[in-house]
Amino acid sequence: MDKFEPVIVAFCCHYCAYTAADMAGTQRVQYPPSVKVIRVPCAGKVDAIHIMKALEKGADGVMVGGCLEGDCHFREGNTRAAKRVDYVRKLLDDIGFEGERVEMFTASAGMGERFGQIATEFTEKILLLGPNPVKTATSEAAQRAAS
Amino acid sequence: MITAERKPMEELIAYLRPFRRILLLGCNECVTVCAAGGRKEVGLLSSALQMRFAKEGKPIEIEEITLERQCDPEYVEELVSRIDQADAVMSMACGCGIQEVARRFQDKPVFPAVNTTFMGASERQGVWAERCQGCGNCVLGVTAGVCPIARCSKQLLNGPCGGSTKGKCEVDPDIDCAWQLIWDRLKALGMTEQYEENIPAKDWRTGRGGGPRKIVREDLA
Q: At B25, is the pLDDT very low, low, confident or very high (cuts 50, 70, 90)?
């Protein structure tokens, strides 16, 4: 079997987590290339459907990055995002997926080191969980059809 | 609005297991407002179901359609061109919408994706509470705009009962005593003499006691 290289989608708030990722780059902090950052205007913009679609299309994990508690530019976007992440985790558990494939984190704009650390730890967790079961099942079905 | 909640995933999965092509319906009215069965919830459920069945190695196809109003035949008619592409229909509308789809498409299995719950109002973002039971003979005019049928656990017409403590119901401390609310509002309105009026026993034939109900407006029918 090919070496598992996870695809992790990280929805990051423009005001903090995205800037933290940018800071990680500026600081030359190493973190796995599996983490693909998508900038959003606020973590509160991230809806359950965005997370589910990412997983349905084959992402192995999804991170949602918002501002530190009490620091949301739009007051409570980060706490709303955290509730949605909880909702999706439960939904994933209900359909027999690992809810841990989705995680919320917070970081301020200056926390480049922290971003790198979170990205690395989450990637390690996804490596342990293995590939998204949707992807595995789809490729197995394709192999069966080809043979 | 009519409120509803999504059914447990396992129940929905069991309904759909024998089928491969599913038409998943939402409704743009009440269930959209109570975040149970609008376009967004249809998308979410569609994703969840497709992921689940893909994981089982039995992928299904789901077409998502959210009708303007599923309880009106005019809108349900829009499904005519799509229905033949589906083996089964799952609807996230209230029970009225689901039944309308089932009535129109007699040869198609139709499954509910939500439990239709009550007629209610939004108390705040994400919280809905029961307000009306459709008793067919509204008493709000003599109960200060607070319904004792829907909001008193005992449906008392002359309350409160002895279970009312500090404005809360003995059934659950989260439930406001409807009769306390009525009294408070009568006082605020300066209409406490209204409370002295004895409300006679209710004729339930206007409610469900008379069997399924129908409204016929001769000028419109």
A: very high
Task: Kindly identify which residue of chain B lies nearest to residue A136, measuring between CA atoms.
Answer: B55
Q: Is the N-terminal amide bond of B109 cis, ω within 30° of 0?
A: no
Interchain CB contacts (distance < 8 Å): A and B: 53
- Please check whether residue A28 touches B, CB under 8 A: no
- The answer for B 3-32 residues in CB contact with A (under 8 A) is 8-10, 13
Q: Is there a contact between A46 and A11 (Cβ–Cβ < 8 Å)?
A: yes
The interface pTM score, or ipTM, of the predicted complex is 0.91
Q: Please give the distance of CA B171 from its chain centroid, rounded to a whole number.
A: 22
- Note whether B29 and B75 are within 8 A (CB): no
Q: What integer is the mean pLDDT of B194-212?
A: 93
Domain residue extents for chain B: 2-118, 136-210
Domain B2-118 in CATH: superfamily?
Response regulator (3.40.50.2300)
pTM above 0.90, yes or no: yes
Cβ pair A59, A132 in contact under 8 A? yes
pLDDT in tens, B128-169: 999 999 999 999 999 999 999 999 999 999 999 999 999 999
